[in-house]
Design a protein that fits this description.
The protein is α/β, with parallel strands linked by helices. The protein contains ten helices and eight strands. Helices cover about 35% and strands about 15% of the residues.
Amino acid sequence: MKKVWSLVVTAVCLAAIVTRATAQHVPLNRGRDAAEQRHEDLSAEARTMRLWQGTAPGALGDGEEDRPTLTIYEAFEPKEPTPAVIVIPGGGYGWLATNHEGRQLANWLNAMGITAFVLRYRVGPKYHHPVELGDAQRAIRMVRARSKEFSVLPDKIGVLGFSAGGHLASTTETHFDAGNPSSADPIDRVSSRPDFAVLCYPVISFVTEYAHEGSWQNLLGKDASMELRQSLSSDKQVTKNTPPTFLWSSSTDTGVPPENSVAFYLALHKAGVPAELHIFEQAPHGVGLDLQDPAVGEWGILLRNWLRVRGILK
């Protein structure tokens, strides 16, 4: 009898554990209609859009990895159009750190009254340049062309990138065009130039001793010529038309050494482009916001101040 009772108790306990586990993982229907039915704030629902309807240019398949997207995170009840920031996660051009270098940054920007767009771009080794740049340029054009729909300011659209995403952001601010006025696609008619850029521990050089080998090999291929690597080394591409830029890194970053940020800052300074650089004493690579650290966690406050000085935020 005791043995039977023990089995019953065990079964009840297991059922309770399963019930608790199930209750902790309740799937919710996504979308603004579903949020409205739950009596929730509709602006909390992120919306994901393809950069191109149908097959993206240069696509090598029709899977998720072949469909670049933008996910919009709205600022809370903006009374007027807001600045916009396209967040570009890092990942060495081989994967995307879309949580701590994507979603978290978007929510943080929202709290400052900025509408954020997280870019999911195509990566190597399946995809190589210029596909990644094309995805980023398309994102800038889309936000600008649809600025009224998104309630953002078309002349205050910035890019914010981390690590390899910082390289992609720096590439957009050194490789841009005014758009093609004769294009049948209205998105392609507008400029791909960002109005400002924020580079967080960015990859910059592909040719120096501190170049991030994994990034350039994923982006360009292991057999890429020195000429191609030079053309994608952003410090060599700065002009007076490069937009104002905020940079930060740390002295102990061994993944992407701070020399990358310093080289880009010096190029900006030489070209007369407004720029601000912060090198923190200690922080590993890839920390994101890092609000737990009393030193490097202040980079967001420094950025907010810079955005206000630049007139991007009020």
